[in-house]
């Protein structure tokens, strides 16, 4: 059986949390709840969270600040809920990293529809195939054999380079921070410096890219993402 997704609901109104929790659990999600920004961050840092429903008007740390802190560590989908209906507020919420934005009052069924839509998009961008080809065979990754070919020729990648390429290529378009990549490659107890990721990226680019085909995109101030050359 597929593991349940963990969804964190953050709101200072108990009634809203109880209603959303009931709807989410009915759809098979595992639900964490928080009534303040500090509590939300504590839960997020200590657990694997797959989706966050975040109210902006919290009693301590604002929802905007919570979103910014989470975005320093993760690209977990965030759906913002707020009573702030002005266009400027909505734009600001999206600019700081929210995936979607809903204004109170709202229908719980509509919230569920937004959750499903965002998760479908996330799943669509996460590739599970054993063999992936990019740009008509320019780059081929065989995950079972741990082989990478460039225009039909085998590339010599180090285990760390292959692992890094696998993480990026299985999540086309998803931005990873250096910290996230370190954790995924080495685990939370790794004492290595995040900037070593830059060295692995540089070596990977030298091996898999050319003047025509670029794959690894630098997202300045954040980290890296993988894109097919036609989308770069």
Automatic annotation (TrEMBL):
**OmpR/PhoB-type domain segment(s):** 129-228
Q: Which residues carry this modification: 4-aspartylphosphate?
A: 55
Q: Which residues form the signal peptide?
A: none
A Gene Ontology biological process in which this protein takes part is: regulation of DNA-templated transcription
Keywords, sorted A to Z? DNA-binding, Phosphoprotein, Transcription, Transcription regulation, Two-component regulatory system
* Gene3D superfamilies per record: 3.40.50.2300, 6.10.250.690, Winged helix-like DNA-binding domain superfamily/Winged helix DNA-binding domain
PROSITE patterns attached here?
OMPR_PHOB, RESPONSE_REGULATORY
**Positions of the DNA-binding region:** 129-228
Q: Which Pfam families match?
A: Response_reg (PF00072), Trans_reg_C (PF00486)
Q: Where is the Response regulatory domain?
A: 6-119
Question: Which GO MF terms does the UniProt record name?
Answer: phosphorelay response regulator activity; transcription cis-regulatory region binding
Which Gene Ontology terms of cellular component type are present?
A: cytosol; protein-DNA complex
Purpose of the protein: May play the central regulatory role in sporulation. It may be an element of the effector pathway responsible for the activation of sporulation genes in response to nutritional stress. Spo0A may act in concert with spo0H (a sigma factor) to control the expression of some genes that are critical to the sporulation process.
Question: What is the protein named?
Answer: Stage 0 sporulation protein A homolog
What organism is recorded for this protein?
Answer: Caldanaerobius fijiensis DSM 17918
The organism's lineage is: Bacteria, Bacillati, Bacillota, Clostridia, Thermoanaerobacterales
């Amino acid at each position: 059986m597929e593991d349940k997704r963990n969804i964190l609901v953050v709101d200072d109104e108990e009634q809203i949390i109880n209603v959303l929790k009931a709807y989410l659990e009915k759809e098979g999600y595992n639900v964490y709840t928080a009534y303040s920004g500090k509590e939300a961050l504590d839960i997020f840092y200590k657990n694997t969270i797959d989706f966050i429903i975040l109210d902006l008007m919290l009693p301590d740390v604002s929802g905007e600040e919570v979103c910014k802190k989470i975005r320093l560590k993760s690209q977990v989908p965030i759906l913002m809920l707020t009573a702030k209906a002005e266009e400027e507020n909505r734009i600001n919420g999206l600019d700081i990293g929210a995936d979607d934005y809903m204004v109170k009052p709202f229908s719980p069924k509509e919230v569920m529809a937004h959750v499903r839509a965002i998760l479908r998009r996330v799943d669509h961008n996460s590739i599970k195939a054993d063999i992936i080809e990019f740009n008509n065979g320019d780059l081929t990754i065989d995950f079972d054999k741990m082989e990478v070919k460039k225009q039909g020729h085998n590339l010599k990648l180090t285990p760390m380079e292959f692992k890094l390429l696998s993480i990026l290529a299985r999540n086309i378009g998803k931005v990873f921070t250096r910290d996230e990549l370190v954790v995924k490659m080495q685990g939370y107890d790794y004492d290595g410096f995040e900037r070593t990721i830059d060295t692995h990226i540089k070596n990977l680019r030298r091996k898999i890219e050319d003047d025509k085909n670029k794959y690894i995109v630098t997202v300045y101030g954040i980290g890296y993402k993988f894109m097919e050359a036609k989308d770069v």
